Amino acid sequence: MATHDLLPSRCPNCGRRNNAATNVDGDHHAPEPGAAAVCISCAYVSIYGSNLQLRPPTGAELALINQSSTLHSIQGAVIDATRRN
Ligand SMILES: [Zn+2]
């Protein structure tokens, strides 16, 4: 995992200001447009737009998100962590 500093972008769901991203796929590259992001505050899955600002997923992207066991695991971990705090 590697954490990358990003320009601030608000979660489309909860409005949290996010300014960093950590990839969890074993790769160490920075996020690219079209990559999915899980909000560390509310576990909402958004998509990095062309300028790396977070946006809601399209219907087709949402269908892919719903099939991703990796994203579901990350969302579960965020939800567990927020319940403990
Ligand atoms: Zn959020």
What report would you give on this structure?
This protein is of the alpha+beta class. The protein has one domain (2-84). Helices cover 28% and strands 29% of the residues. The chain has helices at residues 59-66, 69-84, and strands spanning 2-10, 17-23, 36-38, 45-48, 54-55. The protein has a 3-stranded antiparallel sheet with strand order 3-4-5. β1 (2-10) and β2 (17-23) form a beta hairpin. The two termini are 23 Å apart. The relative contact order is 0.19. It binds zinc ion. Zinc ion binds at residues 11, 13-14, 16, 39, 41-42, 44. Residues 11, 13-14, 16, 39, 41-42, 44 line the site of zinc ion.
Task: Summarize this entry quickly.
The protein has 85 residues and is of the alpha+beta class. The protein is built from 2 helices and 5 strands.
